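User: Please fill in residues for this 482-position structure.
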């Protein structure tokens, strides 16, 4: 391995929703990592229920309930039907393996310790405004110390944020003026305009087989801030914003309006800052977006029921080429509004939970960070021509086959094979390598008798023509029959 590159700036990694360990009185309330979710929830449902948010004040640093974020969940974690993330270990190692950095504990280090690599776990139940204010307080302290003790008086902050962590970062950077101390924000699948999955759980609850987290999910301020802010609800052929629609089932309209106001605060700050030459010259937002995966796009409200689907909203009626995403975040949501016409947005065929670990993404990010220590310049990349779109369920029963379906785009003739590597995350089992079978325009793989547990899947092609898309990754779980 070559010598590590110097890093004068401070790097901070932020996870997405559910991606931080939460503790109370020194005991884990939420620490799903590298194990099957049913093993956790069936043993500790009373513990999980304690996560319900009774009140939330965006101005308060502490809610007084004794719950504290303590660490990032490093390994694979899956909340079936809602969120699944393939960990943050590779993202962190990109920094520690390639740059000369001093790691620190952003909450607990002594005030005089000089460090420039931090992870920022946060209470993901809460208003993103509150977590942004906490982030600002900590960065102000840590960056001042780093500048003084390292001698890098011009050091700035580089934020690397997954999913909702990007919304926390944006509020810190734009509304709280953190951009003045920051060099760049890199986001992996951040829902800048929201996600239909959040709307589905708010309206229809969260129940997967024997798991029911409906009341917990509906209590979270953060879920409201993940709702789509554009017109996605079809009522009698006309599309509406969720925060402007009366009568949607199980929505608190006051909270929905406040969540929309949260996004509008950021938009207004960005518009103001883009008139500032220093802002345009010294700070960059770099969105990394997954595409070409089946993704919910809109909802229909009829007879008191909200039904989500992949049908395109009116804004995309004539642009079906923009109607995909990363499986969780629609393509049109993954790019900040002010960057809609930029030519250097980064798109790659990958699922939401694997973006931060994707090899091509990490290679591009590594090169960009190296250049940033001299003269920040975005590394532009063309959208890959060839891609794999993967569709699978989050949960399968042990007595039913695991069905994976895939579509290939940008490959007119696959001379090789489409394969899936199935790796057990929760148990020590051999990795399976299985071939898909082509069926008309799709590819299908049916796996029988897969033991209960949490699995990671990697789907890739072996094409002798050399035109291979990047592999696509996801996670799923096989559960015991209740």
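Assistant: Residues filled in for all 482 positions:
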């Amino acid at each position: 391995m070559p010598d590590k590159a110097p890093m004068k700036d401070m790097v901070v990694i932020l996870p997405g929703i559910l991606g931080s360990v939460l503790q109370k009185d020194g005991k884990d309330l939420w620490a799903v990592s590298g194990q099957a979710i049913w093993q956790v929830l069936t043993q500790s449902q009373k513990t999980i229920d304690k996560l319900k948010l009774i009140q939330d004040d965006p101005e308060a640093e502490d809610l007084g309930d004794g719950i504290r974020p303590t660490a990032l969940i490093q390994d694979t974690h899956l909340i079936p039907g809602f969120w699944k993330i393939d960990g943050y270990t590779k993202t962190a190692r990109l920094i520690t393996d390639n740059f000369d950095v001093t790691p620190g504990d952003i909450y607990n280090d002594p005030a005089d310790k000089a460090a420039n690599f931090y992870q920022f776990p946060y209470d993901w139940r809460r208003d993103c405004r509150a977590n942004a204010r906490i982030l600002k307080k900590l960065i102000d302290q840590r960056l001042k110390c780093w500048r003084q003790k390292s001698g890098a008086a011009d050091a700035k902050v580089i934020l690397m944020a997954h999913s909702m962590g990007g919304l926390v970062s944006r509020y810190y950077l734009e509304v709280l003026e953190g951009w003045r101390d920051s060099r760049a924000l890199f986001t992996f699948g951040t829902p800048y305009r929201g996600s239909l999955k959040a709307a589905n759980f708010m309206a229809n609850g969260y129940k997967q087989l024997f798991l029911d987290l409906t009341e917990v999910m509906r209590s979270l301020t953060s879920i409201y801030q993940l709702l789509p802010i554009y017109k996605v609800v079809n009522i009698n052929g006309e599309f509406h914003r969720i925060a402007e629609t009366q009568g949607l089932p199980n929505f608190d309209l006051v909270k929905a309006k406040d969540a929309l106001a949260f996004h509008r605060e950021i938009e207004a700050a960005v518009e103001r800052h883009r008139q500032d030459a220093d802002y345009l010259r010294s700070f960059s937002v770099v969105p990394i977006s997954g595409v070409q995966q089946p993704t919910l796009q809109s909802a229909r409200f009829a007879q008191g029921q909200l039904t989500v689907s992949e049908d395109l909203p009116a804004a995309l009626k004539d642009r079906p080429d923009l109607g995909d995403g990363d499986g969780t975040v629609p393509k049109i949501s993954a790019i900040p509004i002010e960057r809609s016409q930029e030519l250097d947005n980064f798109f790659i065929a990958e699922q939401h939970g694997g973006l931060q670990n994707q090899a091509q993404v990490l290679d591009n990010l590594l090169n960009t960070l190296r250049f940033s220590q001299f003269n920040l310049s975005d590394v532009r990349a063309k959208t890959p021509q060839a891609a794999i779109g993967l569709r699978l369920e989050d949960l399968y029963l042990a007595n039913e086959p695991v069905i994976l379906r895939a579509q290939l785009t940008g490959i007119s003739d696959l001379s090789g094979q489409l394969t899936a590597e199935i790796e057990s995350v929760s148990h020590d089992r051999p990795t399976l390598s299985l071939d898909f079978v082509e069926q008309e325009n799709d590819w299908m793989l049916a796996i029988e008798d897969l033991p209960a547990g949490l699995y990671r899947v990697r789907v890739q092609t072996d094409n002798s023509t050399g035109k291979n898309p990047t592999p696509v990754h996801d996670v799923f779980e096989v559960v015991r029959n209740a």
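For context: The radius of gyration is 22 Å.
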